[in-house]
Write a structure and sequence with these properties.
By secondary structure, the protein is an alpha+beta fold. The chain contains ten helices and eleven strands. A hairpin with a 2-residue loop joins strand 9 and strand 10. The chain is globular and about 60 Å long.
């Protein structure tokens, strides 16, 4: 154990038997089972919000989530000698959800629906963690897309990546603006209130035996359950080339544990329709050193472009299936 880890763990009422390094963390075998110690870079108010959410979920019967361990002073965070903040949580020994196993992915979506049933609340426990309407997020992305287009246009000497990016720019920018405009016309307030995980992807879904456990709630926030479902679905749809059966199977699996309202289908449609992957590529390009762009980003750009036709076919079938046209 490093001196830093030992110093932090001394602040807890636990007997540490051994420690070892994990991915960006220290794992500890203790009398209370295996715990995980990680640096925490967020706000103190956010970890209190996270702790309240985890307790609420467990009280409602959803036990497959982590628990934050309080220190001797009953604080959720412990400060190191150099001022770094740490969080200690229970640890699930298992493996990440396999995105190539559709049966497992459908089970992950069923688990998500059960989480959302437990995370439904009557009123916010605090103003912290409130999300912005999705249209507001889209407007922010659109502003950046416009700014980067001007930057690209003004560059006299373009790299191969910049030439490829610029050649597709008008299509995806116009699509982003169109989706945002259409969604603004139909967007309505979510009547029910939920707390979402905020980063529901395979890295945060641990398979242990017959159960799936959800970890890393640091990005939890109040929002529509569609936020979590969309994030998980989009990545799988991209991997499958926007296969209709993949999308339908995931939605049906979710609805086994929590039926969706028509308004939620509409939200899901517009989230999927927005060219977020293109925006992510643009965002990475603009905020990185532009002298050299990794080859994988050219590959990502080509994949987004090549998949666009199949994505539009998927979206059209989605509209028809759920009566959105």
């Amino acid at each position: 154990m490093s001196d830093r880890s030992a110093n932090v763990l001394e602040n807890y009422e636990i007997e540490v038997l051994r420690t070892w390094k994990g991915r960006g963390a220290v794992l500890c075998e203790t009398g209370q089972g295996i715990l995980i110690l990680k640096e925490y870079a967020g706000y103190k108010e956010k970890v209190a919000f996270q702790d309240a959410l985890l307790h609420m979920i467990q009280e409602k019967g959803f036990s497959q989530v982590e628990t934050i361990i309080r220190n001797k002073d009953q604080e959720l965070l412990t400060q190191d000698l150099d001022g770094t903040m740490y969080i200690l949580k229970t640890y699930t020994d298992g493996r990440e959800c396999n995105v190539r196993d559709m049966e497992e992915c459908r089970k992950a979506v069923e688990t998500l629906a059960s989480l959302h049933r437990a995370s439904r609340i009557e009123k916010p426990v605090s103003g912290f963690g409130m999300s912005h309407p999705v249209c507001q997020e889209f407007h922010k992305h659109n502003k950046e897309l416009r700014r980067v287009k001007k930057y690209l246009k003004d560059r006299s000497q373009k790299t191969d990546f910049e030439i490829a990016l610029f050649s597709t720019y008008d299509y995806f920018l116009n699509l982003a603006l169109q989706v945002t405009e259409e969604m603004e016309q139909v967007e309505s307030q979510q009547e029910e209130l939920f707390v979402c995980h905020g980063d529901y992807q395979h890295h945060n879904i641990m398979v242990s035996g017959e159960k799936m456990h959800i970890i890393n709630f640091e990005k939890c926030l109040y929002d529509s359950p569609v936020r979590d479902l969309y994030l998980f679905m989009r990545k799988l749809l991209e991997k499958s080339g926007w296969c209709k059966e993949t999308g339908t199977g995931l939605i049906l699996a979710y609805e086994k544990n929590r039926p969706m309202e028509k308004e939620e289908y509409r939200q899901l449609y517009y989230r999927l329709a927005y060219p977020e992957k293109f925006w992510k590529i643009v965002n990475f390009y603009y905020n990185s050193g532009k002298a050299w762009i990794p080859d994988k980003y050219m590959e990502k750009l080509l994949r987004v472009t090549e998949q666009e036709k199949s994505k539009q076919v998927f979206l059209e079938s989605f509209k028809i299936r759920y009566g959105l046209s």
